[in-house]
Amino acid sequence: VTATLEALRRELPADAGVREPAAAELVDQTEPRGLRGRAEAVAEPRTTEAVAAVMRWCYEHDVPIVPRGGGTGYAGGAVPTEGGVVVSLARMTAIRAFDPLLWRIHAEAGVRTADLRRIARASGVWFPPDPGAAESSHIGGNIATNAGGPHAFKYGVTGAWVTGLEVVVPPGDVIRVGGAARKDVAGYDLRHLIVGSEGTLGIVTAAWLRLIPAPERSLPVIGLYPTVAAGCEAIQAAMASGIVPAAIEYLDGATMAYVSSTLPFRAPPGAFAVIVEADGSVAEAMAGREALEEALRPGAATVHAPLENDAIAALWRWRSGVSIAINAVRGSRVSEDIAVPVDRLAEAVTATLEIGARHGLEAMSWGHAGDGNLHSSFLVDAGDDAALALAERASDELFGVAIALGGTVSGEHGLGVLKNGQLRGQWPPRAVELHREVKRLFDPKGLLNPGTKLP
Amino acid sequence: VTATLEALRRELPADAGVREPAAAELVDQTEPRGLRGRAEAVAEPRTTEAVAAVMRWCYEHDVPIVPRGGGTGYAGGAVPTEGGVVVSLARMTAIRAFDPLLWRIHAEAGVRTADLRRIARASGVWFPPDPGAAESSHIGGNIATNAGGPHAFKYGVTGAWVTGLEVVVPPGDVIRVGGAARKDVAGYDLRHLIVGSEGTLGIVTAAWLRLIPAPERSLPVIGLYPTVAAGCEAIQAAMASGIVPAAIEYLDGATMAYVSSTLPFRAPPGAFAVIVEADGSVAEAMAGREALEEALRPGAATVHAPLENDAIAALWRWRSGVSIAINAVRGSRVSEDIAVPVDRLAEAVTATLEIGARHGLEAMSWGHAGDGNLHSSFLVDAGDDAALALAERASDELFGVAIALGGTVSGEHGLGVLKNGQLRGQWPPRAVELHREVKRLFDPKGLLNPGTKLP
Description:
The structure is a homodimer.
Chain A: H1 3-11, E1 18-19, E2 41-43, H2 48-60, E3 65-68, E4 85-88, E5 95-99, E6 104-108, H3 113-122, E7 125-126, H4 139-145, H5 152-155, E8 162-169, E9 173-178, H6 190-194, E10 203-210, E11 212-213, E12 217-225, H7 228-239, E13 247-251, H8 253-259, E14 272-280, H9 282-296, E15 302-304, H10 309-330, E16 331-336, H11 345-358, E17 363-368, E18 373-381, H12 385-404, H13 423-426, H14 429-442
Parallel strand pairs in A: 2-4, 3-4
Antiparallel strand pairs in A: 1-2, 5-6, 6-10, 7-11, 8-9, 8-10, 12-14, 12-15, 13-14, 13-17, 16-18, 17-18
């Protein structure tokens, strides 16, 4: 038991939930890349006021504060690399208000993404953001990373659905920016400034979220292509079809070599896959499906468009399982989430393979094609430190490619501790300086999630 | 000719376009409220570099800089109340890139909103934001105020369509945040911080904008109701209809008393009007129209749903003309744009009338009902200073109502100089302090649009 833990227990109210850290609270999805933190204590507050009390204590005693959601991040943003106190939002799970007919919900940060989506859906409304780990991730974490997912293509990322935030900012003040109103241009957009700030500016404790009526029907179409070029042409054809697809996903041939055998229909192995989806009313989804099938046909080896609910669910379940299936190939992988303008996607997909080959690493990518958002992976054997180091170098090259193609080093995972400082390559010096000063302004002592986003 | 003008002419390149101010460049739509600025010079640069040169000069010589778009603002954000140099973006009108099949356009700040919408539409794609003065307003100004309009209900405000910005920030540096890529979570969201900042943090010189395929058909439905309560019930019924209306507008009875006679169909005078729109493919728009007609029928005196293009255009033309028609009633009006949660709309509409009555002012409101966004007006005779002062007091009371209802003092016009400092009533002290520090961080000398947003 550390001195910090003892002091916190003594000085903070019981609902701050101070206790010893569990091993699982010191890591996130970057554990296979060797990232593990250390913490003197975990606080698992029940209330916003208790979060503020923890922050006040830490700020007074110069102790780092690392907010933690579902721990599903791929950049290490929830890993307490510099010690201190982990503030877990896991007990802040209240739905403070839910007005389905008014298309809105007010939820605490610890509500799981999938739970929130289910609550909404049961009343006929929909929260569109669907990041990969929705069953484990928290709304607060989604906001902290501005999480995306397949449906961000049509519906936008998490930030597009946030109308208000309750945030605890240093040295321990509760602020509310926005609320249930859908429009607000009175102040600078501090709401969007907090969204995606990865817990480095404040701790999100609750959010007012917009919802919309759920689409009646969502119909996917999958096309398989012999080459990257043919696949990327199909992606652009889907965009030129006149309809707005709900999602445009891809998996490259190297990925498909491992997962096509588990596809719920017969598919040529190693083809480049494009998955699109039409949604809306039944009639609209059917019409959209037809337009998308037509758009995906030229150059395709196979086009498959399931109509039965089970087959549709099986296809998306298969898509969701890709990440885990690829993890299992070698035990570990280094995965990055660059994003580029959609017309540069083919180049980024090819560059991923080339960079891998140059370093003798098995490489592949898949992701949110319509948003030009790749999940580029370099496979390594678990525990092979030399290969891991190579993969980290490969990632650095990949970041250079993303920037050269007019894109970004992170489309949805954030910089975390793994990419901290990478902004220097992407933004001009004056913008990087403003970025650093924004951090200093919110967190003058640099105690909030130190090492994340900024070095 | 002022000394500043002479010095600027001497020291800046010709493409900075330095000249004497025209009278029209010292005012915006707040002129009837008595707002008129003064400026020592106008710069009308042709290039981003020239904008930067002007800012560098001004920053070095401690001269205020007031960016100017189309001058269509209702809050005085483009009025140079403290003198200095007006930087007009009117000559930065290039479309730097337009890729309709990739759903994007890269436009300079001085492109008129309606021109950009027409350019997109001619290629089958659409830029949804449609603020009231789209024929005169500039994209740069829309970004500076985060402009809305009727279609913001379904499609979001201007900021939702901005993927990248080129901005000149003090002391005269050009920064680019974002670009053609549709996703980016690498840095803090400085893009959204600039959007809506009303020229107080930097001058937007160009933007990368998202587009979407244009809907094939847009079909309005208008319902007329005997009371505010019945009208607001219809608004909520439209939201509960299962479809996502493209727009949900309203005009209260006091407004309709002046404009219902020019409606393109027979209507009972003084009824509360609700206009909704269904859009999408032809089939989808027709189905949506039917659902919305049904939703609007209970409690309505009349429901009208034109199908012919001419009749539809006439209805929207009529809606767009309301603002001008009401201006003509007494020669002047004080108009505010509070926004509240949609379930508090009826209270805000009623409060507008009550506040007017208490001050002996003719009051009315109309606006973007689905977004809870009112344009509350108090009519005054042009030149009647006493009535104007009363109306300003009435506005202050209205801001109090907006805040008490969980809303905001500005849903789309911004604070400008008329509402500067109003944030103090709306945000907690620590948030207001962070807001002020953001300003200081970008503009330490306080020269950018002084008096706007912050006092």
